[in-house]
Amino acid sequence: MKQTRRLFIREGLAGAILLGTGNLVVADDVSETVKAKVTRVVNPFHLGMAGFTFSRFDIDITLKTMQRLDLHYLSVKDFHLPLNSTDKQIEDFKDKCASYNVIGYIVGPINMHSEAEVDEAFEYAKRVGVKKIIGVPDVELLPYVDKRVKEYDFNYAIHLHGPDKNVYKDAASVWKFTKDLDPRIGMCLDVGHDFRNGCDPSLDLQKYHTRVFDMHIKDETEASRMGVCTIIGRGLINFPALIRTMRKVNYTGMCSLEYEADKKDPFLGIAESIGYFKALCDTPS
Amino acid sequence: MKQTRRLFIREGLAGAILLGTGNLVVADDVSETVKAKVTRVVNPFHLGMAGFTFSRFDIDITLKTMQRLDLHYLSVKDFHLPLNSTDKQIEDFKDKCASYNVIGYIVGPINMHSEAEVDEAFEYAKRVGVKKIIGVPDVELLPYVDKRVKEYDFNYAIHLHGPDKNVYKDAASVWKFTKDLDPRIGMCLDVGHDFRNGCDPSLDLQKYHTRVFDMHIKDETEASRMGVCTIIGRGLINFPALIRTMRKVNYTGMCSLEYEADKKDPFLGIAESIGYFKALCDTPS
């Protein structure tokens, strides 16, 4: 009887995590066994962290926080690893990340105002060992970026910035500038800035997903220039719809939290955002 | 044209939060308006905080954290407000809570080993101004508790403790002890301890909901005595099923986070747990 019950419990939970070999204590007066099966959706995309979230904190605090949040993919920002780092400094940085079970999967956002800055960014990415760059290039540099993308075989994701900027305000804008360039040039879909520019990030992902190479997630208080970043789940962005679309278009990239509120003490907001987003990722659309 | 669009956006979001009177800036080159409607489920239950989560922290840190997490209901523990507090101290405590937009909705858990301790607890609850007590009474005191419940017209929720204790291990056990007593005596369904005793909290809520007056939420690593508290969403408890059941039985009480991990620095785990649970609460079952 007890053996049967034990086996049943183990099987009931096997969908998510295999229980160990025993030590399952079941009180004799327990009339119900654990029938609930906790199953979590496996998604094509992964959850990551944008380095910019930690603009006021060093890489050690960044990595310690990521470790506690069980996050493993970092978008590397220059204030944590400058573009002019030596190869030794880059190796040390990567070793430190590895010690927290974190890898840098992309670099940026990096502003590029000259061909020399484009060159520097591509060499930097190569030395860091990633094949993706988030960039904000002057528009007239796009043909030059196109050349470098072909040469390096990198993905180049233009970061869209919302209504505060003159170009690259939203996904449609980046699409317009890049659709006739090499297909490896596209966008980092920042859902917050897209939304602040009056767009629906979910619809934009649906339309432009072939050119979405990275995503920044955050919530916003308004679909306008007046909107400010807030904790995921407290704003107006429809995250269930976004996740449904990511699944539908089979988005295989990263969703990196770029939390821009509470700059001096963002930790509670970061963790609540990650928890909220994880729950939506874990459940079926 | 612009007017129409503005109106459309406002209506599109009206389900969740009414936008203000304007300042909605839509860039001229935006081809898509915000069609996504963020709707959040309205639940019969509310999310709260168990004071025990902050056993190493004072009431100020507790309330500041609750404020940042947008939580407003506190289960008051004696280490924040001792049972022998003066009326003045109780008033000051409540004023402080109010300044953070928090109210104490219940007191406890309080161990009760004598009739005098039962009396003290009931008087304390009355002075605090709540009509619910979480208690852990010696079994032989139950008839006395029953008498006091009738006299005060309070709900008395026995906190279940899992396999580490001799009595009140799980919901079935509390049910067994209380089913023939006054219907105002029942349980605080601690989903973690219930699960650690090999039970399914969701099934137990379904079975015993008429006697569930409060709930403690947390996740657990194993359905056994070996299980330890973990961040909600990382353990084995099926929270989507639990929330489905809370809606089904129309549970109108509180779900208070009783986070027992990382005692010295629980804040990230608390926030991630709250975010995870909120997301499940916001979405349909």
Walkthrough of the structure:
The structure is a homodimer of 285-residue chains. With 285 residues, chain A is an alpha/beta fold. The first copy, chain A, has two domains: 2-34, no CATH class; 43-282, TIM Barrel (Alpha-Beta Barrel), CATH 3.20.20.150. Chain A has ten helices and ten strands. In chain A, strands 1-2-3-4-5-6-7-10 form an eight-stranded parallel β-barrel, surrounded by six helices. In chain A, helix 4 packs parallel to helix 5 and helix 8 runs parallel beside helix 9 (239-248). The longest helix of chain A has 16 residues, at 267-282. Chain A is globular, with a radius of gyration of 21 Å. The first copy, chain A, starts with a helix and ends with a helix. The interface between A and B is large, with 69 and 71 residues.
Looking at the structure, the CATH topology of the largest domain in chain A is TIM Barrel
CATH architecture descriptor text of the largest domain in chain A = Alpha-Beta Barrel
Largest interface: A-B, 69 and 71 residues
Biggest beta sheet summary of chain A: 8 strands, parallel, barrel
Number of strands of chain A: 10
Placed side by side, the strands forming the largest sheet of chain A appear as: 1-2-3-4-5-6-7-10
> What Rg of chain A do the Cα atoms give?
21 Å
Average pLDDT value of chain A? 89
CATH superfamily of the largest domain in chain A: Divalent-metal-dependent TIM barrel enzymes
The number of domains of chain A:
2
Shape of chain A: globular
